[in-house]
Amino acid sequence: MSVHHPVVIVGGGTAGLSVAARLREAGVDVAIIEPSTTHHYQPLWTLVGAGVFPKEHTERAEADYIPAGATWIRDAVDTFQPDQHQVTLRSGEVVTYDQLVVCPGIQLDWHKIEGLEGNLGKNGICSNYRYDLVDSTWDNLRNWKGGTAIFTFPPPPIKCAGAPQKILYLADDAFRRQGTRERSQLIYMAASPGIFGVPKYAASLREVVKRKGIDARYRQNLVAVRAEAKEAVFRHLDDGTETVLKYDMLHVVPPQSAPDFVKRSPLADAAGWVEVDKYTTQHTRFPDVFALGDAASLPTSRTGAAIRKQAPVTVANLLALRAGQPLSARYDGYASCPLVTGYGKLILAEFDYDGKPCESFPFDQSKERFSMYALKAYGLPEMYWNGMLRGRA
Question: Cα–Cα distance between 379 and 369 in angstroms, integer?
Fold first, then answer.
């Protein structure tokens, strides 16, 4: 069996729905390949893990955000055949296209940490990086009596690279509220060379780390967990030495990569990401293919804010291609990271490919502000559900 659509979108997440809504507004026949019936606003999982919101607050029905007139194919891609302008689904059905947009998100590689599988959500091991696990973070924080709490950050790229440190700062606040902070050691074990990649915001975050008394160690990668002994094994990324730390709480951020069906496809670059021009989002070898979001090779942070700027560029260039016109829309690498530094405090980092700040407000966004916390907690979710996913923002 086979079916044809002028534009086929792989993935019904943030990028897929944003692009689909804009293409439908332009009158294009669109099909979205997405197996999931639920859609999550993942940026709020940090605050769910800190007890601010229930996780159900972040979940809605996928069907409610499929644009009117779009075809929803509830299946997953197995293989790509870009030379034949077709994809094969897991069901065996073939879908052909004139143009293809690839945005299936990112894969969480929990299995790459030895001893972790089967122990997630138990015995002090928690994570904000999965819907079914995020409650375990809050359970650990609210029942904390003191001890050693370790927070990890794997080698990038990962989605929302600021999230691993946000829950660290919120844990510090939670322990202070509960009167257990002085009986606690907070350790941040990060694979990155520093606290943040953009100097302006890194300077502010170093002050936060100092103020909170956090033990931050860099170029450290979690490679194994010994759950029964409550030990975490870290390998230094420069010299290969290993460090074993005892923990009472371990917040794990998993290694991440492009989905396996992307990695093994003709669309992938050497690292497994969909290989696209970083300015136009068009594939470098297959001109009828575009990619954006977490699975694309775009060398910027994997955030919803980045997708908000990528989606209009992808749509404009795809429509230009269909009309036989030059691809003139450009994406400058804009990304945003709302860095929660405590309950009611946030540094709003905004920057481009060059690490240059691209701030939206007429004040210094490297300073902690309640207004920016309120924006993250209440303003951005509304813009997401009612703006981005509808093609209006």
Answer: 14
Catalytic pick from 103, 126, 337, 358? 337
The domain limits of the chain are 2-106+258-332+385-390, 109-256
Contact by Cβ (8 Å): 19, 9: yes
271 φ, ψ to 5°?
-90, -5
Which of 103, 126, 160, 358 is flagged as catalytic?
160
The 10 Å Cβ neighbour count of residue 143 is 9
pLDDT digits (tens, 9 = 90+) for 84-103: 999 999 999 999 999 999 99
For 362-386, b where at least 16 C-beta lie within 10 A, e where not — what string?
eeebbebbeebbebbbeebbeebee
Q: What is the pTM (predicted TM-score) of this model?
A: 0.96
Tell whether domain 109-256 is in CATH 3.50.50.60: yes
Residues 240-285 have pLDDT tens digits of 999 999 999 999 999 999 999 999 999 999 999 999 999 999 999 9
Q: Are 103 and 9 in contact (CB under 8 A)?
A: yes
For the segment 299-317, the average pLDDT, to the nearest whole number, is 97
Beta bridge partners of 94: 2, 88
Using the predicted structure, report yes or no on whether residue 218 has a pLDDT greater than 80: yes
Please state, in angstroms and rounded to a whole number, the distance separating the CA atoms of residues 147 and 343: 22
The overall average pLDDT reported for the chain is 98
DSSP SS3 for 72: strand
| Topology adopted by domain 2-106+258-332+385-390 | FAD/NAD(P)-binding domain (3.50.50)
Map residue 358 onto helix, strand or coil.
coil
160 part of the active site:
yes
pLDDT interval class at 306 (50, 70, 90): very high
CA distance 276 to 268: 9
- 337 catalytic? Reply is yes
Q: What's the residue count for the chain?
A: 393
- Do the first three CATH levels of 2-106+258-332+385-390 and 109-256 match, i.e. the same topology? yes
* 23 close to 7: Cβ distance less than 8 angstroms: yes
